[in-house]
Design a protein that fits this description.
With about 140 residues, the chain is of the alpha/beta class. The chain is built from four helices and eight strands, in the order βααββββαβββα.
């Protein structure tokens, strides 16, 4: 489940640049109920993209937006409450890892779901049913 963080260089603190993906990974695992499942946490990955500040825009204006994009199977965060919980957790994490004065309104979180069978790792496309079976088998 890839997490992509895009931020203007200098908005995340040095600690934030190092800790944002582990913290977002832990938040997703917690919200999803998979925090104690090695298979589940092992399929959460991501990247941090730090761009020149002049390359980030919102509303057609240069603005220091930090964007968190999560891509996951359609069974992940299956209802509005779960999605809202991740959005709140991710926003709080980013807020704690940005430079002083960065506004919460400049933290955006986007969740994208892959269609059933359109998400995979290592050349294997997982349906929701197959992914649940793999997570369940890892818990036993």
């Amino acid at each position: 489940m890839p997490i992509t963080v895009t931020a203007p260089r200098g908005v995340l603190t040095a600690r934030g640049e190092r800790e944002i993906l582990p913290a977002l990974t832990a938040a997703l695992a917690e919200v999803s109920g998979g925090a104690d499942n090695d298979f589940f946490t092992g399929i959460i990955g991501g990247s941090v993209h730090l761009l020149p500040p002049e390359d980030i825009y919102a509303g057609g204006e240069n603005r220091p937006i930090v964007m968190v994009e999560l891509k996951l199977p359609n069974i992940g965060l299956p209802d509005p409450d779960a999605r809202a919980a991740f959005i709140t957790a991710a926003t709080n994490i980013v807020a704690g890892l940005t430079a002083a004065g960065h506004r919460r309104e400049d933290i955006w979180v986007n969740i994208l779901n892959a269609l059933d069978g359109a998400w995979g790792i290592g050349g294997r496309a997982y349906t929701g049913e197959a992914l649940i079976a793999a997570v369940t088998a890892a818990a036993n």
